[in-house]
Specification:
Blueprint (H helix, E strand, L loop, with lengths): L23 H21 L3 H22 L8 E3 L7 E3 L7 H5 L12 H16 L16 E4 L1 H4 L1 H6 L2 E6 L7 H9 L4 E9 L5 E4 L5 E4 L12 E10 L1 H15 L7 E3 L3 E2 L2 H10 L12 H9 L19 H8 L1 H10 L3 H9 L6 H8 L3 H14 L10 H10 L3 E5 L24 H8 L10 E8 L3 E3 L14 H5 L3 H7 L3 H10 L11 E4 L2 E4 H11 L15 E3 L1 E2 H11 L2 E5 L9 E10 L7 E3 L2 E3 L4 E3 L7 H4 L2 E9 L11 H5 L8 H14 L2 E6 L7 E6 L17 H10 L1
Parallel strand pairs: 4-11, 4-12, 5-8, 5-11, 8-9, 8-10, 12-18, 17-19, 18-24
Antiparallel strand pairs: 1-2, 3-25, 6-7, 13-16, 14-15, 19-22, 19-23, 20-21, 24-25
Length: 731
């Protein structure tokens, strides 16, 4: 298991010919050019329909601006200080209102307590500015497409056959349920390797083995439990060897899963105890808002070329480039943070000891007198002298070998497109690695110049209950993204509210007006009175089919509606293929809703700029248009299109109705309507939907009508005359 000769991979089958396809690089360039020109065009060209509406909007804006001047707010932008795997971005001046934090149980979320009162006032103020918004034409779209169940061999396998590298990427803000699609692709006989190529243990997922045993993985690829597949953790990943062995590999050892010949570790960057403590120091006043996994600090060490990599552990401690000297230089940040915050190590130890996310070996670091020796001895015990540590290998080299010999590689994406540190629109509240499809491909270090490289990205979304943890702008959320942190509310608090699912759904969806805006209100039951959005969010989190709590953090996830505006941006970057997990959740909705546009409204009437576009109160942001940065998105409200549910025809894989059907099933009419709306507004191709938690509970889709927006041929991928004129005038 120690570094040695070259690793021999299983023999791979020859790659099927794909000579009818253009080269990978030319396709990528065409897509990039088309997307860039399309985005500019959509931002610059005013459609005929918008011109017809302009006079109405001008009059409406005049009234909105006058109202906004009469209703000034104390809202400010507050970049909170969390140096972890995400930065805190908040609109609230003081979200941690003492009243709500001091309360307990259901009272934390009651309407008149702490931050809840401020939230209700903010909602009423914004709605007063927007209630006369004219109805948008998007709300009158009539979905007509029909879909039916299809075999995996018809839908997914032809795409795999044409690809050499398949990327399963998150399409929203993580937690989309990527593991099921990873498993389905990994089982294809031509896929030889499943790899995680970046990020760290702040990405968590649960996999059930064939015996039903539950495995919680953070760095290990999901394909580790798929027989006959080689799994790799690439050199751009960051790893705490202690956590990796105690939390992940120990599960394999205990259950007798053979992994030594199927799991290889690249020259990863090492997460040390001081990185996790820097996370704690950086979020001193609100430690629950960070995973405390050291992601930000270790990526800072990586970017500044300090710190340790796995190879350093095997090559001696002494000398200027020895592991001790490197580690001591990197620990300067730790001492500096303590000094700048005026925190003693005794205070740090007490704070760390009281936090369940801080592990014993991190506490031991604080107490150690020779901290470098403590860390190196620890890593010797868990890595260098540990027979259970998986073999080390040059993962990038092995991936290239696999491809050159005709095998296919599956890259399992951590986090998501919008949490990537390359996601310009959300970069200040994302993770520290480039976790979009392009970042994964770059981190794999495969030969992007090879004519045989044919990447395929399959984006994974989730709805109902599209979710996000952490902070940042989230126009489609049921509550502000910082709400759970502001009120310190938990699963137990939501359960104490005893909200009836049917009652809250009837009131919530009944409050969506003809113009697609939600009218604020209060929900009352025998436990108290709550903001309507808070009640809906709490009920969604604890709903038996939702259970929206983070695998890594344990925090409740803020849930909301499928966001066609954000998803259209994703499709322009790494589309068109998408799989939507947890679709069967809608079995328990009489009505659901989809966000088809945003409307910008600043409570003080302040215009904000993003990438050259000035956003004023009343401006509409449509799917496919330029997506602004979250400074603007923080002041966007969703325009919601309601869709009828399908409670009488549940698609859950083990429901009586589904089992009684003749397969392949023609999907229920309202399922088809929701699918059609998403495809129409986002220009995505939905390959499959999830209808249960098990690996095989997936419905692959056959659309029975041609999409009106079919991908143009290469010959037609040029800007229209009107766009060329617009670009010239812009210049």
């Amino acid at each position: 298991g120690r570094p040695g000769g070259p690793v021999q991979l299983p023999t791979t089958a020859a790659l099927k010919p794909w000579c009818s396809r253009p080269s990978s690089m030319s396709r990528l360039l065409d897509l990039a050019t088309g997307a860039a020109l399309g985005a500019l065009g959509l931002a610059l060209i005013v459609t005929l329909n918008e011109r017809l509406e302009e006079e109405t909007r001008r009059l409406w804006r005049r009234g909105l601006l006058a109202a906004s001047r009469a209703a000034r707010s104390t809202l400010t932008y507050d970049q909170e200080d969390e140096h972890g795997d995400e930065q805190e971005f908040s609109m609230s001046k003081s979200p941690g209102t003492p009243g709500s934090r001091a309360a307990s149980g259901a009272r934390k979320c009651q309407l008149g307590v702490g931050y809840n009162k401020q939230l209700a006032d903010e909602r009423r103020q914004i709605y007063a500015l927007l209630e006369n918004l004219p109805r948008l034409p998007e709300l009158d779209y009539v979905p007509t497409a029909k879909y039916e169940e299809a075999p995996i061999e018809e839908v997914l396998h032809p795409l795999i056959a044409e690809a050499s590298v398949i990327l399963v990427a998150g399409a929203y803000f993580g937690d989309e349920g990527k593991g099921k699609t990873v498993d389905a692709i990994a089982r294809h006989p031509e896929v030889k390797v499943v790899a995680r190529v970046n990020s760290g243990e702040n990405a968590g997922h649960t996999v059930f083995g064939e015996t039903g045993h539950k495995y919680d993985f953070h760095l290990c690829p999901s394909g580790l439990l798929t027989p006959g597949k080689v799994n790799m953790i690439g050199p751009e990943c960051v790893m705490d060897p202690v956590s990796f062995m105690e939390r992940e590999v120990s599960q394999l050892v205990r259950t007798g899963v053979s992994y030594k010949e199927r799991l290889f570790i690249g020259n990863v960057h090492l997460v040390c105890p001081h990185h996790k403590l820097l996370d704690l120091i950086g979020s001193w006043d609100a430690p629950n808002r960070s995973t405390l996994q050291g992601m930000g600090p270790v990526h800072a060490s990586k970017a500044s070329r300090r710190g340790l990599r796995l190879d350093h552990l095997f090559n001696g401690r002494e000398g200027q480039q020895g592991s001790r000297a490197r580690l001591e230089r990197d620990m300067g940040e730790y001492w500096g943070a303590l000094s700048s915050k005026s925190i003693t190590e005794e205070e740090l130890h007490e704070k760390a000891k009281a936090n369940s996310k801080i592990q014993p070996h991190v506490l031991g670091f604080i107490a150690a007198r020779d901290k470098a020796q403590y860390v190196l001895d620890l890593f010797d015990r868990y890595v260098v002298h540990n027979a259970d540590f998986p073999p080390c290998a040059d993962v990038s080299f092995l991936l290239r070998q696999t491809l050159s010999s005709g095998g296919k590689v599956l890259l399992e994406g951590p986090q998501s497109y919008f949490l990537s540190n390359a996601a310009e629109k959300f970069w200040d509240s994302g993770t520290s690695a480039n976790t979009d499809a392009a970042g994964m491909l770059c981190a794999a270090r495969v030969n992007i110049g090879s004519p045989s490289l044919s990447p395929l990205a399959i984006n994974i979304h989730k709805t109902p209950g599209s979710s996000r943890v952490g902070s940042g702008a989230n126009p489609c959320a049921l509550v502000p993204q910082h709400y759970f942190a502001a009120t310190d509310s938990t699963k137990e608090d939501f359960e104490a509210m005893q909200i009836d699912w049917r009652d809250v759904c009837v009131q919530y969806f009944g409050s969506i007006g003809a113009n697609g805006l939600l009218r604020p209100g209060a929900f009352t039951n025998h436990t108290g009175t709550y903001d309507l959005g808070v009640a809906m969010a709490a009920a969604s989190c604890v709903h038996p089919s939702h259970r929206e709590f983070g695998v890594t953090s344990g925090r409740p996830r803020v849930v909301g509606f499928f966001d066609c505006v954000a998803h259209a941006e994703l499709m322009q970057a790494q589309g068109p293929y998408c799989s939507i997990s947890a679709f069967d959740r809608a079995d328990d909705y009489d009505t659901y809703a989809v966000c088809v546009a945003y409307v910008y409204v600043h409570p003080e009437g302040t215009p904000l700029s993003s990438n050259g576009r000035l956003f004023r109160n009343g401006d509409i942001l449509r799917a496919g248009e330029q997506l602004p940065t979250q400074q603007v998105l923080a002041h966007c409200q969703p325009v919601l299109k309601k869709v009828d549910g399908w409670r009488e025809t549940p698609i859950f894989a083990r429901s009586e109705w589904w089992l009684a059907q003749q397969h392949p099933v023609a999907l229920p009419e309202n399922v088809c309507k929701l699918l059609d709306i998403i495809e129409h507004f986002t220009k995505t191709v939905i390959l499959s939907i999830g209808n249960g938690p098990r690996g095989d509970e997936i419905i692959y889709l056959r659309r029975l009508a041609t999409r009106a927006w079919a991908t143009p041929s290469k010959a037609s991928r040029r800007p229209s005359a009107s766009l060329e004129e617009a670009l010239r005038s812009r210049a």
